[in-house]
């Protein structure tokens, strides 16, 4: 981990304060769903599609076992559970006064995944982009504009659009060693 377990509360509080300032300027911005990265959306080790499905349900369908008025309330409440861990917080959605999810992904939305780690993002990219996706029932697939921080899989061209081009690597150490006759 690159941050301490339990630091989620501080990060979410800062994020929600920043988003509140944007809303004061007329920007429609708020957290709509969440959960721990190892339990919701970003499986890294096991190719566990249930993890991605929990994220899909919360982010796209606006459905999750936990509903809160704010992300800060969600994280504080879920962190108070015995054995709570930031990475394994269950999926949650933010709801309005009537109990309706405030931000499921719908047709016309833009989605940008900011994670730079392919092992955490390629499964979600498949669910978002593959028309013949069959790992779980997506229920509905919104027509969105999607881009990743990077291209997470060069062979599969996932995602199709990305913010940072893959680096062109020339003269790799393997090429150098072969050229100079180094063998194992």
Looking at this protein, list some descriptive labels.
184 residues; alpha/beta; 2,3-Bisphosphoglycerate-independent phosphoglycerate mutase, substrate-binding domain; 2 domains; 3-stranded mixed beta sheet; two-stranded parallel ribbon; 5 strands
Q: Short summary of the structure?
A:
The protein is α/β, with parallel strands linked by helices and 184 residues long.
What report would you give on this structure?
The chain is α/β, with parallel strands linked by helices. The protein has two domains: 1-103, 2,3-Bisphosphoglycerate-independent phosphoglycerate mutase, substrate-binding domain, CATH 3.40.1450; 105-167, no CATH class. The protein has five helices and five strands, in the order αβαβαββαβα. It has helices spanning 8-24, 49-59, 71-79, 118-129, 173-179, and strands at residues 33-34, 66-68, 92-94, 110-113, 145-148. A three-stranded mixed β-sheet has the order 1-3-2, sandwiched between helices. The chain has a two-stranded parallel ribbon with strand order 4-5. Helix 1 packs antiparallel against helix 3. The protein is globular. Pathway: Carbohydrate degradation; glycolysis; pyruvate from D-glyceraldehyde 3-phosphate: step 3/5.
Number of helices: 5
**Any idea how many domains?**
2
Task: Calculate the terminal CA-CA distance, rounded to whole Å.
Answer: 35 Å
What is the molecular shape? globular
Structural class: alpha/beta
